[in-house]
Amino acid sequence: MIKRKGSNMINLEKEINKWKKSLRKHTSLEEGNIKELEAHLRDAYEIEIRKGKSSVEAFRDAKDALGECGSINNEYRKSHAHRTEGSKAGQMFAAALWLSYLKVGVRNLTKNKSYSLINIGGLAIGILVCAFIALFINNELSYDNFHKDGNRIYRVVKDFGGTLPDATTPPALAPALYSEIPEVEESIRIMPEWDAKILLRYGDASFYESNFLLADSNFFSMFTVNPVAGDLESALIDKNSIVITESLAKKYFGDYNPIGSVINAERSGRKKDLTVTAVVEDYPENAHFDFDFIIHSYDNIDEHWGWYNFYTYIKLKPNINIANVDPKIQELYEKNWEGGTNVFYSQPISDIHLHSNLKWELGTNGSINQVNTFAIIAIFVLIIAAINYINLATARSALRAKEVGIRKVSGAFRFSLIKQFLIESVITSVLAFIIAVGVLYFLLPTLNELFNSNLILFNSSTTSLLIALAIATILVGIISGIYPALYLSKFQPVVVLKDLKNLKGGLLWLRKGLIVTQFTVSAILIIGTLAIRDQLNFIREFDWGIEKNHTLVLRNTDSFENRDALRNELLKFSSITEVGNASTVIGELNWTRGIREKGKPGEEDVLTNFLIVDENLLNVLNLKMIEGRKFSEKYPSDLEDGIILSRKAIKELEITEPAVGKQVVWATRNDTLIYRTIVGVTSDFYFSSLREEIKPFAFVPSKYNLATTYVKLAEDNYSETIEYISEVWKKILPNRPMEYSFLDDTFAQMHKQDAKFSKIIGVMTSLAIVIALMGLFALTAYTVERKTKEIGIRKVLGASVKSVVVMISADLLKLVVISIIVAIPTTWLLIDRWLEEFAYKTELTIWTFILGSILTITISIITISYKSIKAATANPTNSLKYE
Amino acid sequence: MLSKNLMAASSKPLILAILRGGENYGYQIIQRVKELSGGELEWAEGMLYPVLHKMQKDGLVQTKWKLSDNGRMRKYYRLTTKGREALNNEKQQWLKVHGMLEKVWQPDASLGTT
Question: Which string of b and e fits A175-188 if b means at least 16 CB within 10 Å?
Answer without folding.
Answer: bbbbeebeebbbbb
